[in-house]
Amino acid sequence: MARRDGLHTPEKLTLLRSMVPYIRANGPVPIIELASHFEITPELARALVRLIALSGVPGDTKTYLPNDMFDIDWDALEQDDEALIINSIVSDDAPALSGREIAAILAGLQYLKAVPGLALSEEIDLLIQKLAGTAIVNPPLIEVRAVAPASLQMIRDAISTGHSLRFEHRKSPAEITNRHVQPYSLESVDEVWYLLGWCADRREERLFRISRMSNIEAHPPIQAAPTSDQNRPSSTSLYAPAADAITARVRVGEQWLSRIRSFEPTIIRSSNSSTDVEIELAVPARASWVVAASAGNAEVLEPHSARTAVAAWAARALSQYDQ
């Protein structure tokens, strides 16, 4: 929807400072396109383009000579309804952000602020206030929900203080194990959070999805756990399979391959319609995660245990609906 015409003088100046570099980079620009890009009416866009021709910076003589003024292609404006700057003066001012750009930045800042324990919360508040004050009009209010689990702050504290964590870990609906872990770091992929740490029960570094952790308690440090980057094992990626992991062969459509990249698939065959990959999985039931990540556009070829696990997972899902 186009913005109203009734802008105040400071708002018009801010808009002009953004329009000039846009026209210089893309000219000739149709007035309709210019109005759409800056969310103003075509009438206001034409008036501002005319105003550009009356703008400039006084030169050494402190007067406005021809070379000190912007100039536009009047024929292009009057006959073709296009904006084209044919004489441009040097300006060191950075172009102002549009309302759409400010709204996008504000949404990102609010997303960061929603993360519990963020140390820069006050700085983000100040930056949000500054950005909102530079908008040509009030940017749209965007509600950003907290995407981090409530237990995240406890895990952050344990990482900071060196404490270990005991918790229940749900590997599958029917399998829950007790774990004792020395936490190293937190990772996130989109809205999914993971804990990377040294598991005393498995005697190696493991990755845990936080949404599958419950009854989390802080305990003294695990003395046997590596305590430095030089001594502890280092994962080369977010997904690090265990030593006893199984290798599953999966066929996925070429356009869906990017959806399962977090499992680090190894391509073993590729055609125009599909790709066969091998993926290391901790347990056969994890094959259903791969199928879910591909939005159902993957077929588990082997081993049989993984195919059986996916079939059982699909049957449970279908049972929730009336057939």
Structure description:
This protein is α+β, with helices and mostly antiparallel strands and 323 residues long. The protein folds into 4 domains: 9-87, Orthogonal Bundle (Arc Repressor Mutant, subunit A); 99-134, no CATH class; 152-219, SH3 type barrels, CATH 2.30.30; 246-318, Alpha-Beta Plaits (2-Layer Sandwich). It has helices spanning 9-26, 31-38, 42-52, 74-80, 99-113, 121-134, 152-161, 287-293, 304-318, and strands spanning 29-30, 71-72, 82-83, 85-87, 164-172, 175-189, 192-199, 204-209, 213-219, 246-253, 266-270, 274-281, 298-302. The strands form 4 sheets. Strands 8-7-6-5-9 form a 5-stranded antiparallel β-sheet. A 4-stranded antiparallel β-sheet has the order 11-12-10-13, covered by helices on one side. A hairpin with a 2-residue loop joins strand 5 and strand 6. Helix 5 (99-113) runs antiparallel to helix 6 (121-134). The protein is elongated. It starts with 8 loop residues before the first helix and ends in a 5-residue tail after the last helix. Residues 230-236 have low confidence and may be disordered.
